[in-house]
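Thread: sanity check for a docking pose with zinc ion

Original post by kr_44:
Hi all, I'm comparing my docking run against an independent structure prediction. Below are the sequence and the ligand SMILES. Could someone generate the full complex and paste the structure tokens? I mainly care about where the ligand ends up relative to the chain.
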Amino acid sequence: MNLSAQARQLIAEQQKNWELARQNYAGLKSVQTRKLAFDGFDITVQFNPERIRSSAAKVDAGSIEARPCFLCPHHRPAAQKSIPVLGKYDLLVNPYPIFPEHLTIVHIDHIGQLIAAHFWDMLDLARMLEEFTVFYNGPKCGASAPDHLHFQAGNKGFLPMEWDFKKGSFFQDARTKNGMDMIRWTAYLRPVFTLSGKNKEQLVEAFMRFYHEMEALQSHEPEPMLNIIAWCRAGRWTIHMFPRKLHRPWQYFETGEKQIVFSPASVDMGGVIILPREEDYRSITMADVQDIYGQVCLDEQHVRHCALVVMD
Ligand SMILES: [Zn+2]
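Reply from moderator J.T.:
Ran it for you. Here is the predicted complex with zinc ion included:
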């Protein structure tokens, strides 16, 4: 049985035998969503109160040190089962789902959320989980456990950007080198740089070039601020990088009417905005969305610079 099928079996098993998963997957079926129609693409807004844990997670060093790590095996609930993957990860069912099928893939060791040494693994996971989209949230880009390396995965066909990629309407600079496509998107609210190809070494090398260009701009950060969404189809990987410059927008820290509890991560970059508070879900406007993406995403000119270095 391939890993996608095993993962689906685990989701079914956990919904039967783990009360928290059963409740939250049942709750997801009645979750409210609405669509914001931008020029040529849609953004879905999802009201998901269970995600408050992630959106409002305290990720400063003091808070992280003071809490037990919920991804470490000895702190996980007894009912939470896992599938060993690649000899160094545990595949788990995410008990606070956004996707109808939502996984967390956790490194077996308590090591920091840093992508450079593990990007290769991310591509392996995307290939093994062909029915899923795999994503990575940087330590200051939406990860609620920045101290424990993990990826997430959700069923394909859920993120609006999958269609937007197929349409290709927002592609600006595009180049193909030895079978690998490199594409920079524009006019899409959030800048995206995409790599697509079949040669893993070539993809990793291109990713690292982009990483190092960004690193030069953000030398004060533990790693360049990134959300990454990757999938694999028939041996061809597609990797979308969303360069960031800010963890959370000013609205997050407001109180009263100006507050919007929106802490952008990969899923939001992929076109599904998760709002855990009903008042935000009701009141958020297209102008708010545009403003928040503008605050948290790296400026287009910098993304362009990094992308052109890779394409050169
Ligand atoms: Zn841990």
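Residues 2 and 68 are 33 Å apart (CA to CA). Hope that helps with the comparison, let us know if your pose agrees.
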